[in-house]
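Quick log. Single chain, no ligands specified.
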Amino acid sequence: MKISKLFTISIWFLTILMLITSLLFSITFLGCGGGSGGGGGDSESPSPKRSINVLPSSYDFGTVTPGNTPAPLRVEIKNEGTTSLNVSDISLQDTTNFILDLNGGLNPCSSATPLLPAGDGCTIEVRFQPQSSALFRTKLTISSNDPAIAKLNLPLSGSQADISTLNVRINQVEIACPSGIVSAYVSVTDQGGYPVLALTEGDFSVTETTGYAGSPASSPYVENNSTIATVLVMDYSSSITSHPDRVSDMEEGAVSFINQLAAGDEAEIIKFGPIIEVVQSFTSDNNLLISAIITPWNKGSGTALYDAGKKAVDDIVLRSKDRKAVILITDGFDNDSIFGVDDLIDYAFSQNVPFFTVGLGSDANVMELTKLADYTGGKYYSAANSDNLHTIYQQLAEVLFSFQYILTYSSGLADGTTADLTVGATLPSTTIVGSNTKSITKCP
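-> predicted structure:
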């Protein structure tokens, strides 16, 4: 009897103990673990973090010849973390050949110690102004309270060298009939892509295979002497738009180019992907042109590159300006055109329209873009890093708007005769020479 009663008490005690344990577990689970289903306690918040990102990660200003200055490099400092980032210093190692501008770019940092809220950023600029002929390397150092990267170093380089190469291009030829006076529009650039200045008639030679041979009668710059019509053809296929930095650099460079149009000059803006759209027809109104450039545009993944080039030629030949030029900015890969590269070359050449091509990205189709430029009287520019676009647009503007030569002479060809015209140039007081040849037909 006593044993049975003791057993009953033990069972009762264990049951009470299990109920208490279960109740305590439930309270603990609801209070700390957040519950499941509709229970819901507060989940543990992630720790705030700081994360600095700087673009570009490195940069080469290329080769600069004496008297020239490349476009400044814009550097963007971003806080990609979830709490404020305190930048404690922005400094350059070499302050003799490189210049730091804390107030440069579209969103200036304004100081060497900006405080960047989460998701925010600011810009600075670095200029390369070499003081002697040599290769220069330096580091831009950005210090912050990012625990992962307390000091971020951005390698910079650039060199200065005397002119060693003359790149001569006969961009366009106009022949007055019946007089036979030839006006050859010629650009001369050095190995860094900068225009070679101050050449005179005696520094040029003009040779027709069966006609005139000698120096031109005159060689003034185009600045204040002739107007120009240009078409900017801009690639918005997925291979470009998948890199937002390429798009922004392409657009910012195009805006800087348009801002250098002279009175009487005009431009048209064409954007292409799988379709081709004239987003702004020919105008001298810079505001309209800039608005068309910066307005977002994305029509899909195809690339009608050569058909877009044909549209540019179709439009520009109808203009009455003295000179014409198409600037094509692309990675150079076409998958959606009826025209091919050879078709476009033949058409542009027959209409006396030069193509200045800019290969965008390290994977650009250099061979076809170079071929298109060379055979039409233009020039190919490589923008393996899209940050180089600012200097390229600067060089293009200098050549097309200011420092293109107009060589005039009286043709010795009979009317209707086709011959090769060769223009040679010599750098004064040196043996450095360059030449280019273009087929011409006198008064057909």
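The chain has three domains: 52-160, 167-221+404-441, 228-401.
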